[in-house]
Design goal:
mainly alpha; 83% helix; single chain
């Protein structure tokens, strides 16, 4: 699982492949369902899963901010192009 998250992050950093908004939330929900159904008796696996879930939450937040910034930039370009027409 940790390997899959590492590959996910490498794809985002190096290949500039950005997952769509909500992809990290879907992964987060899937992992949360696994954690709730799988009885963990030791503290360390619970701490590991919490770190994985926190990492996905941080990734989704960064995707939301990036998407918001892209939309704002596109809106500014459209406004500038429209003002040239007038």
């Amino acid at each position: 699982m940790l390997f899959a998250l590492l590959v996910w992050k490498i794809c985002i950093w190096f290949f500039e492949v950005h997952p769509p908004v909500g992809a990290n939330i879907a992964a987060l929900a899937f992992l949360a369902s696994i954690v709730t159904l799988w009885p963990l008796e030791n503290r360390w696996p619970r701490a590991f899963w919490l770190l994985v879930l926190l990492g996905l939450t941080i990734l989704e937040t960064s995707v939301l901010y990036r998407d918001s910034k892209e939309l704002e930039t596109a809106r500014e370009k459209e406004t500038a192009a429209f003002s040239l027409l007038l």
